[in-house]
Each structure stands twice: as structure tokens, then as C-alpha cells.
Amino acid sequence: MNKPIIRLDKIVKAYGTHTVLDGLSMDVKAGEKIALIGPSGSGKTTILRILMTLESISGGTIEVDGDYLYHMKDASGALVPANEAHMHRMREKIGMVFQHFNLFPHKNVLDNVTLAPILTKGVARAEAEKRAMELLEMVGLADKARHMPAQLSGGQKQRVAIARALALSPKIMLFDEVTSALDPELVEEVLNVMRRLGEETDMTMLLVTHEMGFAHDFADRVLFFDRGRIVEEGPPDAIFRNPKEERTQNFLRKIIAAGHRV
After folding, report:
1. Sign of the dihedral defined by the CA atoms of residues 91, 95, 101, 106, in that order
2. Phi, psi at 112, each rounded to 5°
3. Reduced to 3 states, what is the DSSP secondary structure of residue 5?
4. What is the bridge-based pairing of β-strands 18-28 and 204-208?
5. What is d(CA 246, CA 244) in angstroms, rounded to the nearest whole number?
6. How far apart are CA 60 and CA 139, in angstroms?
7. Listed residue (222, 217, 224) closest to 254, CA to CA
8. Which residues pair with 230 in a beta bridge?
């Protein structure tokens, strides 16, 4: 029962001669809310993209919900590269919300939210639309169901993107800098939806963010990354109020100097 829902074991990710992750190991417990912080290029987003299978790994193994993500066992019990059917089944456990929304511009809000359940899970349209309306209600956009993305603000688009990811009922949600492309006055409406998700569901969530105040309030555990490794991790108060590592201290000092709340 105590087995982590996500386990990265000695993960290597390299682009040619450039190694982004070099032997990274980390566990995430079911229902845990994790904030990944650190400078740009430290490997945070790469971890999310690897979990979403948008990027492959160069070495190591990943387990998600008790099964290997990039591997499967053959008849002899040996680990072999996963086939597409296995990867497809594993992807259904994970949802991701991106920095730039990635909505389909030619489809209205309701169709954006229902498309994946209908196409990938064979959900009947009426059932998919009923669930979509419940999710749009949750993110405060039920009245925008027939609007096109071009008619929405950035914050509204991002809330639709969250509803769309939730429509597949994932066990794990990944959030990649979901407020960084928004005007400052629109940030809070997206963060409020994420707060509600954290309070009202038992989903496991991984959040990459520069919103340090939100990370402090939202996360059960904060991981500070630099150069593809975890420099320091712990409860939010320990990391933000009393960091032990000099690299963490320097990073947070610069964040505060830039006017961010921690």
C-alpha cells in the first residue's frame, strides 16, 4: 500500500552530448502535491514531459501506478522496451496542462473538453458532454461552453485546458508553468482552480512553477532542482524559510529580489 505512485530510478535524459538528467531518482506518494522549483534549464519541465511520454528517456526506469512506463516484462519476466499499446494504456493515467494552453482553435470549448474521452476512451458523446459541463462548472466556465478559444482570455483558456485534462480522469496531474504566459491579473483565477483541485480531490499533482508563494501554500513537498539533480527537498516551510543548501539560498534570494512572494 505504501508503494509510490511515481518512481524514477536512475533516469538519464540526454540530447546528443548534452545531459539534462543524469541518474535522477525520486519517488512520489499517491495523493502527494509536489512543487518542482529551480532555475530555467534545471530539468524540471523535462521530468514532466518524460512522465507524459512527450520525451523518451536515455536510461533508467520509471514506474507509474505500479507498472513500468517505458518498459514491459516479456514471457521470461525480463524488462523490454514497451510497445505502443502498453504506452497508450499508461498515458491514460496521466494528465498534463501546458504553459500555452494548446487548445484546438477551430473547436469550441465543449468540443475541446469532450474530444479526448470520445476518441481515446470511446465515451458516448452525451456522457462526455455531461462530464465536460460538470468540469466547466468546476472551473467557472460553464457559460462559455459554446465559445471558441479566440473569444476567451488567457486565464479562461488555461482553465479550459485544466478541464480538458481532467476529462480523462487521470490519477496524476502535471502542471507546467501554467501561469507564466498569463497577464498578472489573470494568474489568480487559474491558481484558484488549482487550489480547489488540491483541496477537493486526492489526485497526485506535480507542479513546475515560478509562483513561489503558491508553491509554498499548495505543496506537501518542494524539490529544488539545479543542473538536473535534486539539490534540496522538504516541506515548504523548510525550503522557503530555512533552506540548508547555499545554492537554494542564492536562488530564493534572487527570487525575492525580483519581487516574488515566498
Report:
1. positive
2. -60, -40
3. coil
4. unpaired
5. 7
6. 37
7. 224
8. 225
Q: In a 3-state reduction of DSSP, which class is residue 127?
A: helix
Classify residue 74 as exposed, middle or buried by CB count within 10 Å of its CB (0-12, 13-18, 19+).
exposed
pTM: 0.92
Q: Which helix (H) or strand (E) holds 128?
A: helix 125-138
Long-range contacts of 118-125 (CB under 8 A, 24+ apart): 120/92, 120/168, 121/92, 121/168
Q: Which residue has the cell 522538504?
A: 234
What average pLDDT score do residues 81-108 get? 92
Q: pLDDT (tens digit, 9 = 90+) per residue, 50-77?
A: 999 999 999 999 999 999 999 999 899 8
Is-contact 94 50, C-beta < 8 A?
Answer: no
| All three cell numbers of 257 | 529580489
**Chain position carrying cell 458523446:** 125
